[in-house]
Records
---
Amino acid sequence: MTAIEQTEAARPRGTRLPRRARRNQLLGAAQEVFVAQGYHAAAMDDIAERAGVSKPVLYQHFPGKLDLYLALLDQHCEALIQAVRGALESTTDNKQRVRATMDAYFAYVEDEGGAFRLVFESDLTNEPAVRERVDKVSNECAEAICDVIAEDTGLSRAESMLLASGLGGLAQVVARSWLHSDRSVPREQAVQLLASLAWRGIAGFPLHGSEHH
């Protein structure tokens, strides 16, 4: 029994969910359908059925399938941005920052809901509103990493942004590759390998005002 079905079973008949709770329920059902079927194959009928509601109820909250998809993207793009920012703020030790940031990406792709597929493997990237959100998550994660690099080194903002984009792209691509390889390497070990690779590169740039790494 899914979490949605458990919630429905536990609630007395005839009661109505508060609007926010209903919206979250619909988003959860939509995520399951979009991840399993992709945007184009998914139907509002499928989502309503998965949520256990009528189509009119679904349309009360989301005027169309694209609105529903974009709401999910907003939610899950923000989740990764906050995870990366949290990793960077979790320590002042730059070596540990690199590791924490790599782990944030691995945790994101490993989430059992598969939300990362909506962000990084969408079949709707030609839609401008979707492309805008996908670009935003990459850019904002890179900006967060860039802030640390620029503050700690003598590199310019533009140079720091290039390095930050490289680190973010490396983490995202390798984390997805790791997941698609059926996690043949344990996550802890995979994160450590990637963090070691990234640290050996970024540590080559000395701290601002210091000759030491």
Note: The chain has two domains: 3-63, 73-202.
---
Amino acid sequence: MGDGAFELEGVAKTYTVWRHLRRIPVRGVTDLTLSVPRGIIFGLLGLNGAGKTTTMKLLVGLMRPDRGRVRVLGDSIERAGVRARIGFLPEFPYLPLQLRAPELLGHYGRMSGLGGRHLEDRIARSLETVGLDPGRAEPLRTFSKGQLQRVAMAQVLLHEPEVICADEPMSGLDPEGVHAMRELLLRLRAAGLTILINSHQIAEVERICDRVGMMAEGRLVREGEVASMVAGGRRLEEVLLETVRGGVGHAH
């Protein structure tokens, strides 16, 4: 393994769920090895249950592997200092709708040990980065879905992470919201951040990702540059379905 932004080596994770009053083991990922270079947007693709969200939770420290190694920015995810350098946008972020955006960010900033003028500056900078007015006085319940997603991303950016994991960042957004999120992710990459996204919006992944990894049944079955996968006029969705249905296992 090299010095990538995200690295998993021989990782396995099984968890349990309750079904019909019984605990059922569920395989999350199996023997997963992946290295994501720094400074790119990387997409995790696969059908439902492929292991994408489990992979993301392992990378941000919300799950611990049963075996294998998880490293972010060259260090073990077990180190608290490393987790402080990661931003995580969940698929369904919790946003108290009675608050204003600066109030919400102030609350989370203080929980992270920030305060004073430094926190105020970060709040304003984060909101401006995502295209929102720091002086907007309305509570979050008046925001559109796209605007709420921008607030959630501002929260992710508040502590100035070096890498970001975004789980379905464009889910439920209208075309304007998708465009705004796309442009934001591209700007963050241009600023030097590494971004890993999990998305079912394959056309958007094709537009913004430099590389993708395709998963099936908890395994990485293909990984490589988007440009090479879609060479000859192919679409990434076509390549994904062909790969996961055929169980093709290779990387390039």
Note: The chain has a mean pLDDT of 91.
